[in-house]
Specification:
Helices cover 34% and strands 19% of the residues. It is α/β, with parallel strands linked by helices.
Length: 649
């Protein structure tokens, strides 16, 4: 029976020290001209120090026409070899093997990153906004195949131990394999495995015969009847890959054509951990002699151990989890489970890198991408006495860092437990959001380990500050519910969504939810409970707000959960009156609507809790407000503010 600590070979040449690998996940850490920069090197060095057997450098474009994103690194010219070699060297210095992903974005490419030209694809495909892709000519296809081979040659010259080919998630190699994207009538369409096989052949021709090839593919597209399913992948695609000479199968799923496909590419908080493991297990069962890698929300240490010991897969690939905690492999192997920052699948990393085209940010690990400044917590020049008011993520993260800098820290929380609003956000009765509490579990455990005094059930007041006379007051008092100014809002049938999440509210069978964002999740949870639910939002977007930042999560609500649970969504309607058994609204044209209701749940945003800050500003030597008491926003902004000020004080 294999374990996570056991070595494994990929091909004849590559021996890994354990069963952990990092997944090739785009981070937007390069430079616009395709070169690497120091942050790029530092982040991969940190991941390598964390103890995986293999570190895979993410999407690296093999052709100028394949640059999909801003700051994407490139390997289509010899001038890039030196910088990529610096990355490989940093990985090797930390005793890990290095692979690099060869990538062509195909239809994913944005025109602004490929010289203003339309993206190239096997067949002409429609894009958002009415634009179209351009179908590749036969000569262009041959050139891109050559580009993959040349990219592999440069990877070997840069010192990489293997290549990982991006044949998934809507990239060009994937497109050639898919009947949805590839409608050609020539040889490239008659045999949809031909392009992939020729890419593998080209890599073999440009490198040593035993140079390892890891093949990352989508085992299922989730593109409906026009795409391919797992049966096609298992019985047609995988045999073609193996016959052509790949050494390891990296099993992912998903694409970019719809929200379900996107959700299976990077599973959101609503999905259970290890949701893609069964695909890898089926591949492993069919092809037992080939190393198989699994990926996708693998953030539970004991579960990853079981995946290997049960033979479902040979390797665990960590994407978001290794951003949340680069030391995850080392901590798992050392059984230091309580010290692990577990990813909470909020997908802030994807929002910042893929959607906003900024350097990736992690909500639970503010230090990711700032390794030179944040990795080592430096002692303060002058230790101070600090009181932290509030035990949500902001207050806890500040206390965790500040006490390690040598400050004397006491944290007060007026509730009977730490966690703040996360305790509610992770507690929807019938919608899976529990992974959000991972940040609380980690921070609470670290405060206990560090011996930080935590006083629960006591609110920080001006009198307390006058008595204790701290050098620094950190105000992390969070936010408070925003009660709308609606006639009848104090009717007994009206409850705030917080009371529903706490389990303190009796909800009738017919429910009107007033307000989107949190309201969208409340409505879905109530509908899954069997309630008849109307969701009323005065704007045209039911998910636009400071908390729901994950585009996939938002679209899952709008396109999947709201319609499929039977929630009746009413946009551009303003609630003007709440009476006994009814809710009255006006639309944009002044038309009145009336809805029968046994209960009304109000979710109209939140307001910063500024009372303590206003009472004590200029009355203590130093006062800093962090988190929602400054401005209600996401968990990530709270922890990042806390991490910044804890290093400043």
């Amino acid at each position: 029976m294999a374990t996570l600590a056991d070595p494994i070979r990929i091909g004849e040449k590559l021996k890994l020290k354990n069963r952990f690998a990092t997944a090739p996940m785009y981070r937007c850490f390069g430079v616009d001209d395709g070169f690497v920069r120091q942050e790029y090197i530092d982040s991969y060095a940190a991941e390598a120090r964390g103890g995986p057997g293999l570190v895979c450098v993410a999407n690296t474009a093999v052709s100028a026409s394949g640059v999909a994103f801003r700051r994407l690194t490139r390997i289509d010219d010899d001038k890039y070899v030196a910088g990529l070699a610096d990355v490989a060297n940093a990985i090797h210095l930390a005793d890990a093997k290095a692979a690099i992903q060869l990538f062509h974005g195909g239809m994913i490419c944005r025109p602004e990153y490929i010289g203003g030209q339309p993206p190239v694809t096997p067949s002409v495909l429609p894009l958002l906004g009415g634009a179209k892709t351009r179908a590749l000519s036969d000569a262009e296809i041959e050139q891109i195949i050559e580009d993959f081979g040349q990219g592999a040659r440069r990877a070997a010259e840069a010192g990489y131990d293997a290549v990982n080919v991006h044949a998934c998630h809507g990239g060009l190699v994937h497109e050639f394999m898919s009947p949805l994207y590839n409608k050609r009538e020539d040889k490239w369409g008659m045999d949809r495995t031909l392009f992939a096989r020729r890419v593998i052949q080209s890599i073999r021709e440009h490198t040593d015969a035993d140079f390892p090839i890891v093949w990352r593919f989508s085992a299922e597209e989730y593109n409906g009847v026009d795409g391919y399913d797992f049966d096609y992948a298992l019985n047609t695609l995988v045999p073609a890959f193996l016959k052509a000479g790949v050494d390891c199968l990296d099993v992912s799923t998903g694409s970019v054509m719809n929200v379900v496909a996107l959700a299976h590419l990077d599973p959101p908080v609503y999905f259970k951990p290890g949701i893609l493991v069964d695909y890898a297990a089926a591949v492993k069962q069919r092809y037992p002699n080939v190393p198989v890698m699994t990926v996708g929300k693998l953030n539970e240490p004991r579960a990853t151990d079981d995946i290997i010991s049960s033979g479902k897969a040979d390797l665990i690939a960590l994407g978001r989890q290794v951003i949340a905690d680069p030391d995850y492999p080392r901590k798992v192997l050392a059984r230091q489970h309580d010290d692990i920052r577990r990813c909470m699948s909020c997908n802030w990393c994807l929002l910042t890198a893929f959607w906003q085209m900024q350097s990736v940010k992690c909500a639970v690990n503010p230090g990711y991408g700032k390794e030179r400044d944040y990795y080592e917590i430096r002692k303060a020049a002058r230790p101070k006495r600090i009181i932290v008011a509030g035990g949500g993520p902001a207050g806890m993260e500040f206390a965790r860092v500040a006490v390690q800098r040598g400050h004397e820290v006491v944290l007060y929380e007026k509730q009977d437990r730490l966690g703040g609003l996360v305790n509610l956000a992770s507690s929807f009765p019938h919608l899976r959001t529990r992974d959000l509490r991972n940040v609380v579990i980690y921070l609470r455990g670290q405060l206990e380990k560090l011996g930080v005094p935590v006083i629960l059930g006591q609110e920080v007041t001006p009198a307390l500050i006058e008595k204790e006379k701290p050098d620094v007051l950190i105000v992390a008092t969070g936010s408070q519910p925003n009660w709308p100014n609606i006639p009848g809002v104090l009717n007994p049938m009206v409850v705030h969504y917080e009371e529903y999440l706490r389990g303190n509210a009796t909800i009738g069978e017919r429910v009107v939810v007033v307000g989107g964002v949190e309201g969208a999740e409340v409505a879905v949870s109530l509908a899954l409970q069997g309630k008849e639910v109307y969701l009323i939002e005065k704007s045209g977007n039911v998910t636009k707000g400071p908390y729901l930042l994950d585009p996939v999560r938002c679209q899952m609500l709008v396109d999947e959960y709201i319609p499929k649970t039977g929630v009746k969504l009413r946009l551009h309607q303003k609630v003007v009156e709440i009476g006994n058994g009814r809710v009255v609204t006006l639309d944009r044209d002044g038309r009145q609507e009336m809805y029968s209701a046994d209960s009304v749940v109000v979710t109209c945003g939140r307001l910063p809790n500024e009372l303590l800050k206003e009472a004590l500003e200029h009355k203590v030597p130093e006062l800093y407000a962090i988190g929602d008491c400054r401005q209600p926003r996401s968990i990530g902004w709270a922890t990042h503010e806390a991490a910044h000020w804890a290093r400043y004080v």
